[in-house]
């Protein structure tokens, strides 16, 4: 079956048709790097990592872009408050770009730990000021932007006359106006409370500033993704996405900017939005204080969690639900995810034991095994339903366990079909879902345990065991030393 994806813009599943097949352009709105990433920040990257892996498995040539926001993201969506980067820098008494570099590095480390492949391009907003200024000039030239006192705003009511502002989030402009005051504090220079900043004049104390045709300032938050997506993926990309909280106003403003510029496109053919991570049914966010930082979560305990969970367990936890469904985080849910993840890893080890016993080209058990194989990818084809594909993996794994423990059942399956099933299981688990086996034992703890066995054997005068342990460790480059203080070890210098 062809791949279908739910398009937020049309509110229905659609067969995926790339703009310029076999090339596919994918853009994910990345983090604002003013602080450590929390679990909620990880869901989009994990989902889009699986999406790009699957598209490549299908034979597409994917260019995956995930941006870094390091300027222009103010505290309020109404274009008020401090720049989040500058506020963090002031608190730490460092330069804003030091904050950006530090947390961008930490974000990348966490994403790699979660098994996310690096994006093909990872542009930063501060490195694309020229492109953003150019986009503003196009919007102003087309009559959809205006300058006031060195700031430039997008004229939403005028744009709405020619297009429809709110079509992505399904909000009418009347409803939006009904939810605002006629004037907003500090926003009197806007013609409408719905207008949003394309360029903000920098106050004297503002550190991050660039020259522009309207004076020194900095770009609005919504502008960067429109400019960078167009630069790296063209006027119309294939897939653009992020968290559900970005649908409005961020993505809505992106579409308006592209429609108002010379491109006149919706920026992307397909808009995808992953749902939120919740804690006791409430959205996880730093403002509510109910967040779980990824770095702390991997070590534990963190936030409402009483213990830590490995990156692969966290990845499995995020993938065991459909990306458009909310996921509630708790120790019970993560412990269940750990059991499921370990079952799949044990399945990878089981594959080596599945050796066919018949040379027949076709046997009665082949049909059942082929059906289980087909089910593996049916979920991914249906709007990237990883939950369904994982359930199919467990169904196939149960079959593998039967084949491994029942010689008569194994004899009913041909070698060719068994090899296909083994390859399909490994491909889905490792190559597409990105789940890797990870060591659960600490090497130094295992060494200390081995030395305790060595000491016991020596005390019991079991010298054959003593020599065996010495030889085994020497083979690993470890030398045992018997000292007055006790048994010690050192790296072999040979």
UniProtKB/TrEMBL annotation:
GO terms for molecular function: ATP binding; cysteine-tRNA ligase activity; zinc ion binding. InterPro entries: Cys-tRNA-ligase, Cys-tRNA-synt_Ia_DALR, Cys-tRNA/MSH_ligase, Rossmann-like_a/b/a_fold, tRNA-synt_1_cat_dom, tRNAsynth_Ia_anticodon-bd. A motif ('HIGH' region) lies at residues 31-41. One of its GO terms (cellular component) is cytosol. ATP binds at residue 286. Zn(2+) binds at residues 29, 225, 250, 254. Binds 1 zinc ion per subunit. Its cofactor is Zn(2+). It catalyses: tRNA(Cys) + L-cysteine + ATP = L-cysteinyl-tRNA(Cys) + AMP + diphosphate. Its EC number is 6.1.1.16. It is found in: Cytoplasm. A motif ('KMSKS' region) lies at residues 283-287. Gene3D superfamilies: Cysteine-tRNA ligase, C-terminal anti-codon recognition domain, HUPs. The keyword Thylakoid does not apply. Keywords: Aminoacyl-tRNA synthetase, ATP-binding, Cytoplasm, Ligase, Metal-binding, Nucleotide-binding, Protein biosynthesis, Zinc. Residues 375-447 form the Cysteinyl-tRNA synthetase class Ia DALR domain. It is an enzyme of class 6 (ligase). GO terms for biological process: cysteinyl-tRNA aminoacylation. Belongs to the class-I aminoacyl-tRNA synthetase family. Monomer. This is Cysteine--tRNA ligase. It comes from Hymenobacter sedentarius. The lineage of its organism: Bacteria, Pseudomonadati, Bacteroidota, Cytophagia, Cytophagales.
